[in-house]
């Protein structure tokens, strides 16, 4: 396969997005509109006239060119319209130009590699296949999850699609557990509005007995996958288990569809427990680091 390196302005976005749409492992993260939002600059490797593509979000720090994993983008790596082998992944990694001296990116779950020039660390996401009826899916919930869904019902938590993009972003801003830079909240605004505008985003809100918003989430649906991308709860929402009701509602509404719900992680046990409680199973992807820096700069991050 002939592999070309292209800067953003030289990429044919129609062909690029068609490749992602037709890929055996396409994901919403790989589309050009998504990359334009989450990465200030990106380029890409293109194989055989867009039969395979490999996004490369890039930046410069202290005069050093590097490739990184953007916020709100769990997986990237190689997307291909044909079968993906370890040899093909290695060929694409070898094609990353030498001027990028530090590379730290996540591949996707279809990219299995033992690339000798990189440090490869396994990471975990959680998948739930929604193909079966809700009665079967909900019967696989953990005992604690069933209890928390029942508690949400007892608190009269209701779930609806009435939440607005502004409300979801503000909920995230006020109640996000980790502090985010203002520019990342700008990304959130763009992701929410663009995803909904493109027809791949669905927002759900959970409301208390007084019809006050207490939790919200954004789901992105494309390529037979649903990404549980953004979620946040107020203190009251957490106490009343509103997010359990929200996720249960989404599973109920989308059961018996050829979809896989990707919870986006996590390696943090308490968060992973929440996902596993809905019957999701762990699925590995790889984080790779390639350090081409001179020895005196090996501590660069």
Describe this structure in words.
- With 301 residues, the protein is an alpha+beta fold.
- The chain has two domains: 3-123 and 285-297, Aminopeptidase (3-Layer(aba) Sandwich), CATH 3.40.630; 131-258, Gcn5-related N-acetyltransferase (GNAT) (Aminopeptidase, 3-Layer(aba) Sandwich), CATH 3.40.630.30.
- The chain is 32% helix and 29% strand.
- It is built from ten helices and 13 strands.
- It has helices at 13-22, 32-38, 86-94, 134-139, 143-154, 165-175, 182-197, 235-239, 242-254, 269-276, and strands at residues 3-7, 42-47, 52-61, 64-67, 79-80, 100-106, 119-129, 158-160, 201-207, 213-222, 225-233, 260-262, 281-291.
- Strands 1, 2, 3, 4, 5, 6, 7, 8, 9, 10, 11, 12 and 13 form a 13-stranded mixed beta sheet that branches.
- Strand 9 (201-207) and strand 10 form a beta hairpin.
- Helix 2 (32-38) runs antiparallel to helix 7 (182-197), helix 5 packs across helix 9 and helix 6 packs antiparallel against helix 7.
- The radius of gyration is 20 Å and the shape is globular.
- The chain starts with a strand and ends in a 10-residue tail after the last strand.
Fraction of helical residues: 25-40%
What is the structural class?
alpha+beta
Shape: globular
CATH superfamily of the largest domain: Gcn5-related N-acetyltransferase (GNAT)
State which percent range the strand residues make up: 25-35%
CATH topology of the largest domain: Aminopeptidase
Q: How far from one another are the termini?
A: 33 Å
TL;DR of this structure?
By secondary structure, this protein is an alpha+beta fold.
